[in-house]
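Input:
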Amino acid sequence: MRLAIMGAGAVGASVAELASAYGHEVTAIADSNSAAIDPNGLDTEAALATKRASGTVGDDSPESVLEAEYDVLVEATPTTLGDAEPGYSHTVSALERDRHVVLANKGPIAERYDEVRAHERNSEGRVSFDATVGGAIPVLTTIDDIGRSNVTAVRGVLNGTANFILSRMAAESLDYEHVLAEAQDLGVAEADPTFDVDGTDAALKCVILANVLFGGGYALSDAAVEGIREIPGAALQLAAEDGQTIRLIGEVVDEEIRVGPRLVPETGTLAVSGTQNIVQLQTERAGRLNISGRGAGGDETATAVLGDINRLL
Amino acid sequence: MRLAIMGAGAVGASVAELASAYGHEVTAIADSNSAAIDPNGLDTEAALATKRASGTVGDDSPESVLEAEYDVLVEATPTTLGDAEPGYSHTVSALERDRHVVLANKGPIAERYDEVRAHERNSEGRVSFDATVGGAIPVLTTIDDIGRSNVTAVRGVLNGTANFILSRMAAESLDYEHVLAEAQDLGVAEADPTFDVDGTDAALKCVILANVLFGGGYALSDAAVEGIREIPGAALQLAAEDGQTIRLIGEVVDEEIRVGPRLVPETGTLAVSGTQNIVQLQTERAGRLNISGRGAGGDETATAVLGDINRLL
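Output:
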């Protein structure tokens, strides 16, 4: 397949680097203010080297990628809330040209799911987005595998940054601010960690899960969200005295979406440590299914994107 | 789809009971010495009631099911070693009639994988067997999802009976014989537990994984297998003093298959408790993926069978 990649951050760059190993060709890649396009197959290494050296991947404009030759648009621009732009317009543009779209960007399918699906119905192209929930963990394809109607509830740890902070607070008896600084030093938390620590990122993933499970109708405003900023270190120590710990749990239960700190057993399935993610699928007749692994990272998320692309074939 | 079900034990009966909820119709079901057939759709409740009352599902012979009207043969007769009969012949018969086969029976694809695939290549029918590894855990479909060539090793707890026994021995400081008797009382272990406690069942699952990952060539004789009968209760107590416990671990690593008791961290991912199963997939670029859940049970395995059937559509 010929791939056009919108976004040259960790995920976009990793998709570009791994594409040929999966038998695909990159014909275009854009960052926020430039693009490199070659209908005969781009030298992605050169484009990414140009970006490292000069800050831009090439001499074209990002928008020109939308008019380039490609079979699949990989939408890996940053997640935005509300109108989910520019990811939403990129998605619509590809569908209007009867091209497939594979999203790593959560915005369009969290905030404008019904509109995206409506455009998909009028297109020869299809929309896939396994990379948006759980990174390397194939949450959405597993739900497909076992059948959406067989899943009665979803619950899990869906943000690695928040989980790292809570794990470290518990293990080292440290305060939130102290551990956040450490996480930022390690590159686990961003300079502005709001999306992660306020629960927004986990909530967007839950919204996507709800849209998939119930056929649409949900946006971030439908989620009850509480973050981890206000948790005192002492709360984790009190929990530990009782064999418990605190995790930021997202859940889709009874058609409601909730994200917030919850007490969980210290040695229980949900108490994954570090940046791990875990998703529990409660099923109709087959009990509870747990899937855990790396929930973020360029290569991990790119692997999920490339899995989606292979399933389009 | 019209289903013919060979085998009316826990799995076969559960497939028969759940089929209509998944939009399918059962046209035939056989136990080891009888069958009930109706090309217009069988009253499966009546057939299973007949079996409970009289020990047979109907007046036809089991073999006559192979000639009945159906789209998918569900092979749920007991797993046998060596020639894997009668499951193997049932599978071949269906493929020769250009029908699909969904197996819950591990024998044919553990012991005669290459022959089954050769028959499949000459058939319009396809062979699926997600139910054979991990029960309700979609291990094989997950491997498909992430791509076989991306999986570098598989390791896991693949037998719920052995895991129950080891969990109880550790938790209650009891001996093997004592816990085995308890497991038999609870219906967790069979009267003859050999397959489970000697590691054969876990080894067959590993052989199936190796066949899937490496395109065939493996049978039970290629596996190095050690069971749990000889583990003294004292070994579990010694392990616990060091924060460890013992689990029966199956692994497919470097094209080798090994099953045996291994020391694992007491609070680690592999130390699932009770009858739970867990499978760890080591991936090329996306770290380790863990999937856990109920590895056995009639409804659980039937759910996996019905998932395979839905994917045939």
